[in-house]
Amino acid sequence: xxxxxxxxxxxxxxxxxxxxxxxxxxxxxxxxxxxxxxxxxxxxxxxxxxxxxxxxxxxxxxxxxxxxxxxxxxxxxxxxxxxxxxxxxxxxxxxxxxxxxxxxxxxxxxxxxxxxxxxxxxxxxxxxxxxxxxxxxxxxxxxxxxxxxxxxxxxxxxxxxxxxxxxxxxxxxxxxxxxxxxxxxxxxxxxxxxxxxxxxxxxxxxxxxxxxxxxxxxxxxxxxxxxxxxxxxxxxxxxxxxxxxxxxxxxxxxx
Length: 255
Fold this sequence. Notes:
This protein has 255 residues and is of the alpha/beta class. The protein is built from eight helices and seven strands; from the N terminus they run βαβαβαβαβαβαααβ.
């Protein structure tokens, strides 16, 4: 494991059973943090937790519905009791309910808003009291280049744009308590979620990746570890003067 680059803290990473969330959880553990691996299905977190523990890190699996405030409150208090007061939060949990506007249902809209926006609100609100008491905190929200608009994603794009405004407001309100808030906006990252998008548009995933890579200046698609490196910096002691920012991790200057 790499040597810790910052003071060890307790971190909560939502949607951490796989993909970007799992990579972020593993990186924060490698940095020396104790990590609560949170997902809707606690048993789905077992692989991420085992990977962290096998590498010598500290982690626990926590099941929670981030869209439900009571579920989140119970989860955060469990983390505080078993791992220590959480002062690093990565709001990564997300779902897709893609469709063109005229086909999108209210249920599709509400489900995406519930997980991305209400979920981030619930987790941050529950954890912020621990940050304020510690006079240290790091909130890292996962936005997306889709915040700039993306066909078939009116709900997802709106939610990701909303997270950017949420992030900037948190930075203003919590800064005096030693708490920073930033957002990471990934571009094309090779995950199960982008595989689902390829399936939706009827393109083989390998072809989907090849096409995307040709449009990206660095000539490759992103990997979950690319996001994890950025989250590691934003969670570090050294990032204390970076707040209210949206960092596009997309392989080039344009999303």
